[in-house]
Structures are given as C-alpha cells and as structure tokens.
Specification:
Helix content: 25-40%
CATH class of the largest domain: Alpha Beta
Number of helices: 8
CATH architecture of the largest domain: 3-Layer(aba) Sandwich
Radius of gyration: 20 Å
Distance between the termini: 7 Å
Number of strands: 15
Largest sheet: 5 strands, parallel
CATH topology of the largest domain: Rossmann fold
Shape: elongated
Order of helices and strands: EHEHHEHEHEHEEEEEHEEEEEH
Length: 243
Amino acid sequence: MEPIRIAICDSNPVELENCANVCRAVCAEKKIHAETAAFPSGQMLLFEMMDPAFASMINILILEPINGCEAIAEAVRKNGYDGIILYLSWITEKNYFFQAFDANAINYVEKDRHGGMSRFIRVFESALKAAREQDRQYVVFSCAGEQRQIDIRDIYYFETAMNHMVCVRYIGGEFAFPSSLSVLEKRLKDRGFFRTHRSYLVALDAIHQVSYDRVILINGKEVPIRQGNCNVLKSAIDHWKLH
C-alpha cells in the first residue's frame, strides 16, 4: 500500500517540528505507512506544490496561514490540488477562517497555548481516514496554461524532450510539460514506474516483454534498457505484481 504523504508548512521551526513529530507518532501508533515533508516557508512549499507531479503525491497539506503562507491554499487549489487541507494556527481572525472555507479545508484547528495537541490529533486522525478513502489514481500535468489530468493506469512511459521538457505517452495521446525524469522518478517510484534508461521512465504495468537491451510495451513501443539494468527491472516487475 502506498504511503500517506503529508506536507506541513509553518514558519516557526519549533512548531513545525512539533507538528511533524505528532503526525509521525499518530501514524506509527495506527501502523500507517506515512511520509512527512516539512517546509519552513510558504515560498518553498508553493514552489514544490506548483509542480503537479509533486502535488498529486500529497495526501494531506497542513498549513499555518501566516508569514507568507496566506495564499498557498488558494494557489494550490487553482493549480489542481484536490487533496486534504488542514489549517493549524494561532490566528483566529474571521478572514483566515473564510480563507480556509474557500479553499475547502477540512478543519481549522487553533493551536493550544499550553502546548497540547489533543484536538489537532483528533482532526488529523479523521484526515488520515479520509486520505485512505480518497481514490487518487491520476496525476496532473500542466504547461503554458494547459492542464492534463491523466489516469496513472493509462500511462505507458515518460520520455525526455528538448528544452527541459518531459513528454508523457498515455492511452489517448501525449503531453509535454516542464520537468525532469529524475524528479518524476523520485515522486512516482512507489506507483509502479521504473527508469529503464536515462531518457525513459516506464510504467511497469505497461511492459509486455523484457530482453537484455530493450523493453517492448503493450502498445508496441520499444524502449531501451541501459546496460546491466535488465535483471533489476525483472525484479521490480515481480515485486510490483505482489504489490
């Protein structure tokens, strides 16, 4: 089962680490495989979340909506992020509550001035349950104002293109967008993709046949395998079938 991926943004480093530790502790207690990414500034988080490949991997986004983080929720929603958003803040002004409402956040938790996290834990547990029930079998890519939402099960492979672009080939067409295979490989490694060659990232489910120097996909496309990668690929396929 894929891990729950949690992104947390808070400009206060102590509170950021505290929130991350609480999230990890709750997940460990419930035996939920989870990964947390902590961002000490809204600018850093927004840079990552504007990459649709990254945003599509995040299940829960926890925000302190001050100190440069005010516009994050609205911006990521406009960019196609449909995961769970949860606010955790000292701020109780109405405009921040409205902001959370407009971004379809699941809750707005006021930080406990005595350091307790009991209400946040209850809300976070509900968010974990919702994230597990949410079916997000797709990825979103965008380029020059155009956006594609593609079912991940329809993807054959990604291929490097010119000018720092990557082209995704899938059932129904192809689409080029700014990214790199290294970034995609890291973010899709747990979703059944394998880097057969420096220029190709292939969906394991799309592989029909493997030989020592190439892969034949179910759509007939032949993709090269870099030297020494054949056995590693076969092991990855066997492991994925048991997934």
